[in-house]
Specification:
95% of the residues lie in helices and 0% in strands. With 129 residues, it is an all-alpha fold.
Length: 129
């Protein structure tokens, strides 16, 4: 019976040692779990922050795209206006050229008529004096 008690005592000691090991391991696992949860929380916070930044950047990109579209519209209008003004300028230059040619022809005709008038030869001599 003493042997049985000794064996029981040995088994109890082994069981206590094993229980202590399991308790220690459980404590280690709890600490690891706590650390992993902290890391998870930090990563979630970082992800939320990056999500907020991504939304802000998306809004900025949309605003820049809208501004670019507006500027492109203005540029197109200015190009169209410039093209219209260029066409008007060419038209006016053509009109001026035509008027200058008509003026030159009129001057030649007037000079020709003046030369044919009586006393036209005396007039240039008086101007020279």
């Amino acid at each position: 019976m003493l042997e049985d008690l000794d064996q029981l005592s040995i088994r109890l000691a082994a069981l206590i040692a094993h229980t202590q090991e399991l308790a220690s391991e459980a404590e280690t696992l709890r600490a690891s779990l706590s650390q992993v949860q902290s890391e998870r929380d930090a990563l979630q916070a970082k992800l939320a922050q990056e999500g907020t930044q991504a939304k802000a950047l998306t809004r900025k990109v949309d605003a820049y795209a809208s501004e670019q579209a507006a500027l492109q519209g203005s540029l197109d209008l200015f190009k169209q206006e410039q093209s219209t003004l260029q066409a008007q300028l060419q038209s006016r230059e053509h009109e001026v050229s035509t008027l200058r040619a008509a003026t030159a022809q009129a001057r030649e005709r007037i000079e020709a008529v003046l030369e044919r008038l009586p006393g036209a030869a005396a007039a240039p001599e008086q101007e020279a004096q």
